[in-house]
Amino acid sequence: MALVLQGATFLHQYLGAFLHSAPQKSPNALKLGVLSSAQINAAAVIHPVETHPDVILYSIASRDAATATHTAKQYHFTRSHDSYQALLDDPAVDIVYISTPNGLHYEWAAKAIQAGKHVLCEKPFTSNAEEARALIDQAKEKGVTIEEAFHWQFHPAAHAFRHILESGEYGRIIRTEAIMTASPGVPKGDIRWQYDLAGGSAMDMTYALSFTRYALRSQLPKTIHSVTARRSAADPRVDEAMYAYLTFEDAQGGEVHSRIYTDMARAWAVGGLVPRFWELPSIEVETDKAIIFFYNAMMPHLYHYIAITDKTTGKTKCHRQYQGGPLWGDVTTSDGARGGQSAWSTYRWQLEAFVDAVRGKTPAYWIPGEESIWQMECIDRLYRAAGLPVRGEQADAKE
């Protein structure tokens, strides 16, 4: 399903570019270097950069020189590099976007930091919490900006969702259920099935955990009641699916019961005949007074709703937020508008905040480094509870 959403985002951004002219770039615009030629690049950073006046597509690097040259020409980069290290050694590069396989995030983010580059690193941030702590420490020591690319959290809809939860109108949170699945499923030859590259559903579909922790403003679960992994037949170290039942503690010391479900090979519906295209990454939150459901929390720019159902009357009202909102509403964004543009994707909102941070401004929203550490620590704990090795650790493939 993530591939379908990415495809829809490509179309969304293409239409946006067609309807709106590209802005004139500032004379000292930040020069972006992209490490890897991953499919996600176009949606995640290339198209967002095209609409930001303070960033230019400077270079892309691939382990295959021909691929780098082709991609640079296709998307109008200034140049290409035939290796990741060559790009990092280029003094003209200001910021680096890392979309390598999960297992390589730490290595190349660390090298980018040492080269003095600001880093936007795809999720999951690293293979494990130990690597995450090391990266944050290195970035602080070097004085550069590093951010985990949990793009959904930068969108106005996410901020509206949290504002509703924290408004006090619906009472305290009692329960959460978050889901992210892939139907028809992640292709079997995909790198996300490889343990050595930090694959697995809890890693790739880390959004479900992110939805939960974001809603609760929680660091780590108080109790892990149960974690069940459906292991890959090809490599039992890799979780094809993960089911977790956790308890978090809210700010008042109350307990919140949370269930998380991720699945890279979700069974089709109607007796295995129909892919579950409607099953988009979402979270349901039960409070004292209401059931609040955020549909398509991962890519709300395409379509979303926040449905609020009163537990007493059964009546439901829906809220949608494509621009402005609690955090962006009073901000004059790089396009000169107040509250940004409704056509912006989650990735474009993320870039807006990232550039502000690099420029020394206070972004409207930011994911602090400690948050990325806690996210990885939680994933590590889920793997241990499921009897699976933590990513990045050596383990026997026959376990």
From TrEMBL:
<dbReference type="InterPro" id="IPR050984">
    <property type="entry name" value="Gfo/Idh/MocA_domain"/>
</dbReference>
<dbReference type="InterPro" id="IPR055170">
    <property type="entry name" value="GFO_IDH_MocA-like_dom"/>
</dbReference>
<dbReference type="Pfam" id="PF01408">
    <property type="entry name" value="GFO_IDH_MocA"/>
</dbReference>
<dbReference type="InterPro" id="IPR036291">
    <property type="entry name" value="NAD(P)-bd_dom_sf"/>
</dbReference>
<dbReference type="InterPro" id="IPR000683">
    <property type="entry name" value="Gfo/Idh/MocA-like_OxRdtase_N"/>
</dbReference>
<feature type="domain" description="Gfo/Idh/MocA-like oxidoreductase N-terminal">
    <location>
        <begin position="46"/>
        <end position="146"/>
    </location>
</feature>
<protein>
    <recommendedName>
        <fullName>D-xylose 1-dehydrogenase (NADP(+), D-xylono-1,5-lactone-forming)</fullName>
        <ecNumber>1.1.1.179</ecNumber>
    </recommendedName>
</protein>
<dbReference type="GO" id="GO:0047837">
    <property type="term" value="F:D-xylose 1-dehydrogenase (NADP+) activity"/>
</dbReference>
<feature type="domain" description="GFO/IDH/MocA-like oxidoreductase">
    <location>
        <begin position="161"/>
        <end position="258"/>
    </location>
</feature>
<keyword id="KW-0560">Oxidoreductase</keyword>
<dbReference type="GO" id="GO:0000166">
    <property type="term" value="F:nucleotide binding"/>
</dbReference>
<comment type="similarity">
    <text>Belongs to the Gfo/Idh/MocA family.</text>
</comment>
<dbReference type="Pfam" id="PF22725">
    <property type="entry name" value="GFO_IDH_MocA_C3"/>
</dbReference>
